[in-house]
Amino acid sequence: MPASSESALAGSRPLGIYLDALWSVRPRLTRLDSADDRPRPILSCAGARPVLHLPPAGALLTRARAAHAAAHLAYGGEPQPRARLKPVQRVLLETLEDARVEWRAMQELPGLRTLWAPFHGAGPDDGNGVDALLLRLAHALFDPAHEDGHAWIAKVRRMFFSADGRLALDTPERLRDAASRLGNDLGQMRLNFNAAGWRVEPAYRDDNHHLWIADDSLPPSATPLEREDADSHGSGDDSNAVTADRPPPQATGGADHGEGGATALWSEAPLRTLRYPEWDRLIGRLRPDWCTVIESRPLNVDGEALRMRLLSALRRLPPGRLRAAGRPGSGRARDGEVLHTDALIETGIALRTGTRPPTRLYRAARPDDGGRDLLLLIDASASTAQPCADRRPLLEHLRDAALLATHELERIGHSARVWAFASDTRHRVRVQHLKDVREDALDARVCARAAGLRSHGSTRIGAALRHAVAHPTGDRPLILLLTDGEPHDIDVHDPRYLPEDLKQAVREARRRGTEVRCLHVGTARQAFALRHAFDPGRCVTTNPAHLVQQVLAGLQSG
Fold first, then answer.
1. Interacting residues of 420 by C-beta distance below 8 A, sequence separation 6+
2. Is the residue at 337 inside a domain?
3. Is the confidence at residue 241, as pLDDT, over 50?
4. Which Pfam families match (predicted)?
5. Is residue 538 located within the same domain as residue 466?
6. Residue 460: CATH number of its domain
């Protein structure tokens, strides 16, 4: 594994204390900076001290990832050779080993079930391909009370658990034999496994490379990590950031269908270029690295008129419209420097009685800390150039509502971002940053960017949504899509293809702990494909006159 500089992991000190309290394990914690759109944690055990590389994520996902990796350190065995195992058999062994260490961890500390359970939601609706069956299997082994109904999954469960509910696959030899036989079963079912596109699921589980004896014949990892032989007395607080972005692809051109010319649409310098999979309903699987997302910012124009209009609209908003985030005066916080004694006692009791442990373990340094990580994703496709009743383009209404809502929500403790997207075939899905975290929505620079936003191109929502889900900046992420139509792009002629991809992208987001909602501007009939993609009650139709109120309601409800 290639060596590189280290990156600091935010909150590594309290996370290290947490792992030490669980099983007295003390891995070195570092941040994993990767160009991968769906990075997984990497647990390295080659050096004198284990190193856990964690991608940036919200606090709950990071804690779930760290606890799972620590379970491997507490209950795992020696690395195994890859020899004589096919790729699908190796993945099956990894899935069984993940379930085994978690089962043992939850036997000792039942409260861990509440930490990992939100990431398990797979069922028959996810399909019957190999990837879907493996995800459904992970759920079935995690929760013995869950009924899946698939005969192969029922067989695995009978092999994994004995009749009295105890663990049957309790040795490396039994695990390996079971993985070999179950892989042969999948072959008999004529199911193909795409090893190159496989990603460990659920998202809190690490990539499992530590389960295998190093093989020098394998190609080196494309993800740079810090030197594994390094050590320190801390928990990964030292830092020198390192990133690894893929080079920009040679994107195909496409005609512009909105305002401005093609030169203006794609002239801003990209921040980075990333590739994402896309669901193909005809083959029932994800096509890996299929869509290219290009991050950028709109070209700055004079935003003073926009800023004045937003300030005027802000004064017209009704008072008492928002509830504050958090509970002032509780005396506890999710993060901090000083642990709360009562919270530690309650956590110890909860972990041993199988009840939900408290999430606030520190003495509060401020009155509230219950905010969410909010992202408003604006559809900036060509159709949003159509004028509304006040003769202003719909895009202006979407943009203004997003900025006003984020300004108000940040005022009460949430963090918020505003992005816009449009596409020109799968090779060019442009995601433009109007406002990022720690920027005021009414700041002159934000307004200059927002005023430069133009309608153009098509509406490849799935790719933009996967990009948004892959880059959370805080706890309890929530994405609100603002759009006027269903998914569409000029290189797709199957009317069901992109709506089914959006449905799959929403499902993937839910597995990763990200809530996705949709606010559709138009008629209920036009929103049919969107309602099909989202969970019940998560897609609401409105009109431009009520946009701000609906955005605030959509981001504060639930």
1. 298, 377, 378, 379, 380, 399, 431, 432, 434, 453
2. no
3. no
4. VWA
5. yes
6. 3.40.50.410
pLDDT tens for 17-32 read 999 999 999 999 999 8
- C-alpha 380/C-alpha 67 separation (Å) is 40
DSSP 27: -
Edge-to-edge, what's the strand order for the sheet holding 28-31?
28-31, 51-54, 42-44
Contacts with 403 (C-beta within 8 Å, 6 or more apart), sequence order: 310, 418, 434, 435, 441, 442, 446, 447, 450
> With a threshold of 0.70, does the pTM exceed it?
no
Question: What single DSSP character describes residue 324?
Answer: P
Give phi and psi for 234, each to the nearest 5. Answer: -95, -160
- Three-state SS for 53? strand
Contact 332, 358 (CB under 8 A): yes
The tally of CA atoms less than 13 A away on the side-chain side of residue 360 is 16
Rounded distance, CA 304 to CA 453, Å? 14
Encode pLDDT of 343-366 as tens digits.
Answer: 888 888 878 887 778 877 777 644
Q: What is the rounded distance in angstroms from the CA atom of residue 543 to the CA atom of residue 111?
A: 45
* C-alpha to C-alpha distance for 508 and 122, rounded to whole angstroms: 10
Q: Which of 182, 211, 240 is the last residue of a domain?
A: 211
pLDDT for res 508 = 92
Strand locations in 226-284 (E): 272-280
Tell me: do 31 and 138 sit in the same domain: yes
Short-list 44, 99, 87, 81, CA closest to 187: 87
Sole residue written with tokens 């839910």:
510
Q: State the CB neighbour count (10 A cutoff) for residue 549.
A: 15
Q: Tally Cβ neighbours within 10 Å of residue 139.
A: 22
Residue 218 has pLDDT above 60, yes or no: no
Residues with Cβ within 8 Å of residue 107, at least 6 apart in sequence: none
Report if residue 327 sits inside a domain: no
3-state helix, strand, coil in the chain (%, to 5): 40, 15, 45
Domain membership flag for residue 218: no
Whether residue 44 contacts residue 36, with contact meaning beta carbons closer than 8 Å, is answered with no
Q: What is the mean pLDDT of residues 472-484?
A: 88
Rg of the chain over Cα atoms, rounded to whole angstroms, equals 24
3-class secondary-structure state, position 96? helix
Give how far the C-alpha of residue 426 lies from the chain's centroid of Cα atoms, to the nearest Å: 21
DSSP structure string for 483-531: ESS--B-TT---TTHHHHHHHHHHHHHHHTT-EEEEEEES-TGGGHHHH
Q: Considering its fold, how many domains does the chain have in total? A: 2
3 state DSSP class of 14: helix
The pLDDT-based confidence of 371 (bands split at 50, 70, 90) is confident
Last residue of a domain, one of 211, 233, 256: 211
Distance CA 437, CA 441 (A): 10
Taking CA atoms, 252 is separated from 42, 296, 346, 425, 467, in Å, by 35, 18, 58, 8, 20
Query: What is the domain extent for residue 49?
Result: 12-211
In the block, residue with structure tokens 């740079």: 224
- Find the farthest-apart pair of alpha carbons in the chain and give their distance in angstroms, rounded: 72
Q: Is there a contact between 385 and 403 (Cβ–Cβ < 8 Å)? A: no
Contact 457/258 with Cβ under 8 angstroms?
A: yes
